[in-house]
Amino acid sequence: MTDTVQDLIASGAALVVGLALGWAVHSAYARRKRAREQAFFGLPDGSECVLVTHRDSTSAHWSIPRHDALALFGIAAVVENCGAHAEVAPHDTGLQGFGARTEFCVGDPTAHRRLGAHMGNLLPGVAVHQGDETQERGSFTIGGTEYRPEPGAVEYVLLARLTAGESGRPVFLAAGQRPVTHRAAIRHLVRNRARFARKYGAQGSFCLLLKVVNSQAYGPDVVEVVADVTKAATSAPGRSRAAHKSD
Fold it and tell me: To the nearest 5 percent, what fractions of the chain are helix, strand and coil?
Protein backbone atom coordinates (compact mmCIF):
# COMPACT_ATOMS: atom_id res chain seq x y z
CA MET A 1 0.00 0.00 0.00
CA THR A 2 1.47 3.34 -1.03
CA ASP A 3 1.91 6.30 1.27
CA THR A 4 -0.69 8.22 -0.75
CA VAL A 5 -3.34 5.55 -0.20
CA GLN A 6 -2.50 5.38 3.51
CA ASP A 7 -2.83 9.17 3.78
CA LEU A 8 -6.20 9.05 2.04
CA ILE A 9 -7.45 6.33 4.38
CA ALA A 10 -6.19 8.22 7.44
CA SER A 11 -7.81 11.45 6.21
CA GLY A 12 -11.09 9.66 5.54
CA ALA A 13 -11.05 8.05 8.97
CA ALA A 14 -10.31 11.41 10.62
CA LEU A 15 -13.17 13.00 8.68
CA VAL A 16 -15.59 10.27 9.78
CA VAL A 17 -14.49 10.59 13.41
CA GLY A 18 -14.81 14.39 13.22
CA LEU A 19 -18.29 14.17 11.74
CA ALA A 20 -19.36 11.66 14.39
CA LEU A 21 -18.03 13.86 17.18
CA GLY A 22 -19.71 16.93 15.69
CA TRP A 23 -23.02 15.09 15.41
CA ALA A 24 -22.72 13.84 19.01
CA VAL A 25 -21.96 17.34 20.33
CA HIS A 26 -24.81 18.86 18.32
CA SER A 27 -27.22 16.16 19.50
CA ALA A 28 -26.20 16.62 23.13
CA TYR A 29 -26.66 20.40 22.83
CA ALA A 30 -30.08 19.97 21.20
CA ARG A 31 -31.16 17.56 23.97
CA ARG A 32 -30.01 19.96 26.71
CA LYS A 33 -31.78 22.88 25.02
CA ARG A 34 -35.01 20.89 24.65
CA ALA A 35 -34.83 19.66 28.26
CA ARG A 36 -34.29 23.24 29.48
CA GLU A 37 -37.30 24.47 27.49
CA GLN A 38 -39.43 21.55 28.72
CA ALA A 39 -38.55 22.47 32.31
CA PHE A 40 -39.27 26.17 31.72
CA PHE A 41 -42.68 25.50 30.19
CA GLY A 42 -43.47 22.62 32.55
CA LEU A 43 -44.01 20.35 29.56
CA PRO A 44 -42.16 17.02 29.84
CA ASP A 45 -42.72 14.39 27.16
CA GLY A 46 -46.32 13.21 27.04
CA SER A 47 -47.62 15.87 29.44
CA GLU A 48 -50.77 17.93 28.95
CA CYS A 49 -51.46 21.65 29.04
CA VAL A 50 -54.47 23.91 28.54
CA LEU A 51 -54.80 27.02 26.37
CA VAL A 52 -57.51 29.30 27.74
CA THR A 53 -58.91 32.00 25.49
CA HIS A 54 -61.89 34.22 24.72
CA ARG A 55 -64.99 33.33 22.82
CA ASP A 56 -65.44 35.59 19.79
CA SER A 57 -68.36 37.84 20.80
CA THR A 58 -69.13 38.64 17.14
CA SER A 59 -69.80 34.98 16.31
CA ALA A 60 -72.92 32.98 17.10
CA HIS A 61 -70.79 29.85 17.46
CA TRP A 62 -67.84 28.89 19.68
CA SER A 63 -64.88 30.48 17.92
CA ILE A 64 -61.68 32.30 18.83
CA PRO A 65 -60.84 35.90 17.85
CA ARG A 66 -58.30 36.04 15.00
CA HIS A 67 -55.32 37.50 16.89
CA ASP A 68 -55.88 35.15 19.83
CA ALA A 69 -56.07 32.19 17.44
CA LEU A 70 -52.75 33.20 15.87
CA ALA A 71 -51.23 33.55 19.34
CA LEU A 72 -52.37 30.01 20.15
CA PHE A 73 -50.73 28.71 16.97
CA GLY A 74 -47.42 30.07 18.29
CA ILE A 75 -47.96 28.31 21.61
CA ALA A 76 -48.97 25.09 19.84
CA ALA A 77 -45.61 24.96 18.06
CA VAL A 78 -43.80 25.14 21.42
CA VAL A 79 -46.06 22.47 22.93
CA GLU A 80 -45.40 20.13 20.00
CA ASN A 81 -41.65 20.72 20.18
CA CYS A 82 -41.72 19.75 23.87
CA GLY A 83 -43.56 16.51 23.04
CA ALA A 84 -46.66 17.55 24.99
CA HIS A 85 -50.38 17.78 24.20
CA ALA A 86 -52.68 20.81 24.35
CA GLU A 87 -56.37 21.33 25.06
CA VAL A 88 -58.13 24.58 24.11
CA ALA A 89 -60.74 25.78 26.61
CA PRO A 90 -63.00 28.87 26.67
CA HIS A 91 -62.41 31.30 29.54
CA ASP A 92 -65.87 30.85 31.05
CA THR A 93 -65.67 27.06 31.38
CA GLY A 94 -65.01 25.74 34.86
CA LEU A 95 -61.42 24.46 35.07
CA GLN A 96 -59.39 22.98 37.90
CA GLY A 97 -57.12 25.19 39.96
CA PHE A 98 -53.78 25.99 38.44
CA GLY A 99 -50.57 24.07 39.08
CA ALA A 100 -51.71 20.58 38.07
CA ARG A 101 -50.81 21.22 34.43
CA THR A 102 -49.23 24.03 32.49
CA GLU A 103 -51.67 26.74 31.46
CA PHE A 104 -51.47 29.49 28.85
CA CYS A 105 -54.07 32.17 29.55
CA VAL A 106 -54.42 34.72 26.75
CA GLY A 107 -56.78 37.67 26.46
CA ASP A 108 -58.28 40.91 27.76
CA PRO A 109 -58.40 40.79 31.57
CA THR A 110 -61.53 42.98 31.66
CA ALA A 111 -63.51 40.31 29.80
CA HIS A 112 -61.55 37.04 30.28
CA ARG A 113 -62.82 35.47 33.52
CA ARG A 114 -60.02 32.98 34.06
CA LEU A 115 -57.34 35.57 33.31
CA GLY A 116 -59.00 38.13 35.57
CA ALA A 117 -59.09 35.58 38.40
CA HIS A 118 -55.41 34.71 37.95
CA MET A 119 -54.41 38.36 37.95
CA GLY A 120 -56.46 39.09 41.07
CA ASN A 121 -54.84 36.19 42.94
CA LEU A 122 -51.31 36.18 41.53
CA LEU A 123 -50.74 39.78 40.42
CA PRO A 124 -52.50 41.78 43.16
CA GLY A 125 -50.31 44.81 42.46
CA VAL A 126 -51.87 45.30 39.01
CA ALA A 127 -55.12 47.25 38.73
CA VAL A 128 -57.01 46.83 35.45
CA HIS A 129 -59.59 49.56 34.92
CA GLN A 130 -63.03 48.73 33.55
CA GLY A 131 -63.39 52.24 32.10
CA ASP A 132 -65.31 55.35 33.17
CA GLU A 133 -65.24 59.11 32.59
CA THR A 134 -61.73 59.46 34.02
CA GLN A 135 -59.99 56.24 33.00
CA GLU A 136 -59.64 54.38 29.72
CA ARG A 137 -61.01 50.83 29.65
CA GLY A 138 -58.14 48.36 29.97
CA SER A 139 -55.67 50.84 31.47
CA PHE A 140 -53.15 49.26 33.84
CA THR A 141 -51.94 50.82 37.07
CA ILE A 142 -48.75 49.22 38.42
CA GLY A 143 -46.72 50.65 41.28
CA GLY A 144 -48.65 53.92 41.12
CA THR A 145 -48.05 54.43 37.38
CA GLU A 146 -50.94 54.27 34.93
CA TYR A 147 -50.48 52.87 31.44
CA ARG A 148 -53.25 54.02 29.12
CA PRO A 149 -53.75 52.60 25.65
CA GLU A 150 -53.60 54.79 22.58
CA PRO A 151 -55.36 52.46 20.11
CA GLY A 152 -53.25 51.75 17.06
CA ALA A 153 -50.32 53.82 18.38
CA VAL A 154 -49.22 52.59 21.83
CA GLU A 155 -50.75 49.65 23.67
CA TYR A 156 -49.55 47.64 26.64
CA VAL A 157 -49.57 43.97 27.54
CA LEU A 158 -48.37 41.97 30.55
CA LEU A 159 -46.41 38.79 29.91
CA ALA A 160 -46.02 36.66 33.05
CA ARG A 161 -44.85 33.24 34.16
CA LEU A 162 -46.07 32.29 37.62
CA THR A 163 -45.78 29.11 39.65
CA ALA A 164 -47.57 27.58 42.62
CA GLY A 165 -44.84 26.04 44.74
CA GLU A 166 -41.99 23.79 43.77
CA SER A 167 -44.12 20.96 42.41
CA GLY A 168 -46.66 23.09 40.55
CA ARG A 169 -46.70 23.58 36.79
CA PRO A 170 -46.47 27.20 35.61
CA VAL A 171 -49.22 29.43 34.29
CA PHE A 172 -48.32 31.86 31.51
CA LEU A 173 -50.40 35.02 31.20
CA ALA A 174 -50.64 37.33 28.20
CA ALA A 175 -52.97 40.09 29.39
CA GLY A 176 -53.31 42.93 26.93
CA GLN A 177 -55.28 46.03 26.10
CA ARG A 178 -56.21 44.85 22.58
CA PRO A 179 -56.13 41.44 20.84
CA VAL A 180 -53.07 42.38 18.78
CA THR A 181 -51.11 42.85 22.02
CA HIS A 182 -51.88 39.29 23.15
CA ARG A 183 -50.37 38.00 19.94
CA ALA A 184 -47.36 40.30 20.32
CA ALA A 185 -46.70 39.02 23.87
CA ILE A 186 -46.85 35.37 22.83
CA ARG A 187 -44.53 36.04 19.88
CA HIS A 188 -42.09 37.70 22.29
CA LEU A 189 -42.27 34.67 24.59
CA VAL A 190 -41.75 32.18 21.76
CA ARG A 191 -38.91 34.11 20.13
CA ASN A 192 -37.05 34.54 23.42
CA ARG A 193 -37.90 31.19 25.00
CA ALA A 194 -34.30 29.95 25.04
CA ARG A 195 -33.12 33.08 26.88
CA PHE A 196 -36.07 32.94 29.29
CA ALA A 197 -35.44 29.24 29.93
CA ARG A 198 -31.78 29.91 30.79
CA LYS A 199 -32.66 32.86 33.02
CA TYR A 200 -35.68 31.53 34.94
CA GLY A 201 -35.32 27.75 34.80
CA ALA A 202 -38.06 25.49 36.09
CA GLN A 203 -39.28 27.59 39.05
CA GLY A 204 -38.59 31.25 38.26
CA SER A 205 -41.47 33.71 38.05
CA PHE A 206 -41.58 36.99 36.16
CA CYS A 207 -43.98 39.67 34.99
CA LEU A 208 -42.90 41.94 32.13
CA LEU A 209 -44.69 45.03 30.89
CA LEU A 210 -44.41 45.21 27.11
CA LYS A 211 -45.35 48.06 24.78
CA VAL A 212 -46.68 47.38 21.29
CA VAL A 213 -45.81 50.31 19.03
CA ASN A 214 -47.88 51.45 16.04
CA SER A 215 -49.90 48.26 15.70
CA GLN A 216 -52.08 50.00 13.12
CA ALA A 217 -49.12 49.90 10.71
CA TYR A 218 -46.95 47.08 12.03
CA GLY A 219 -49.38 44.74 13.75
CA PRO A 220 -47.68 42.71 16.54
CA ASP A 221 -44.15 43.10 15.12
CA VAL A 222 -42.76 46.09 17.07
CA VAL A 223 -42.53 45.27 20.77
CA GLU A 224 -40.51 47.03 23.47
CA VAL A 225 -39.89 45.86 27.03
CA VAL A 226 -41.00 48.74 29.25
CA ALA A 227 -40.00 47.19 32.56
CA ASP A 228 -39.73 44.07 34.67
CA VAL A 229 -42.62 44.74 37.07
CA THR A 230 -42.49 41.41 38.90
CA LYS A 231 -41.95 42.89 42.37
CA ALA A 232 -44.66 45.55 42.08
CA ALA A 233 -47.15 43.26 40.33
CA THR A 234 -46.86 40.36 42.77
CA SER A 235 -47.06 42.54 45.89
CA ALA A 236 -50.35 43.70 47.40
CA PRO A 237 -50.74 47.48 46.83
CA GLY A 238 -50.58 48.33 50.55
CA ARG A 239 -47.40 46.27 51.07
CA SER A 240 -45.82 47.73 47.94
CA ARG A 241 -46.39 51.31 49.13
CA ALA A 242 -45.13 50.47 52.63
CA ALA A 243 -41.96 48.91 51.22
CA HIS A 244 -41.42 51.93 48.99
CA LYS A 245 -41.87 54.25 51.99
CA SER A 246 -39.42 52.32 54.14
CA ASP A 247 -36.79 52.54 51.38
Answer: 45, 25, 35
In the three-class reduction of DSSP (H, G, I as helix; E, B as strand; rest coil), residue 243 is classed as helix
Structure confidence by residue, pLDDT tens digits, 120-145: 999 999 999 876 555 667 789 998 89
Q: Phi-psi bin for 195: left (phi > 0), alpha (psi -120 to 50), beta?
A: alpha
Closest among 154, 134, 130, 175 to 224, alpha carbons compared: 154
Whole-number pLDDT of residue 165:
61
Cα separation values, 87 from 50, 71, 72, 161, 245, Å: 5, 14, 11, 19, 45
* pTM of the predicted protein model: 0.81
Question: Per-residue pLDDT for 24 more than 90?
Answer: no
Interval 140-167 mean pLDDT: 88
Cβ–Cβ < 8 Å for 196, 40: yes
Answer for the pair 198, 38: CB distance below 8 angstroms, yes or no.
Answer: no
Could you give the CA distance from residue 49 to residue 169 in angstroms, rounded to a whole number? Answer: 9
CA distances from 138 to 117, 194, 209 (A): 15, 31, 14
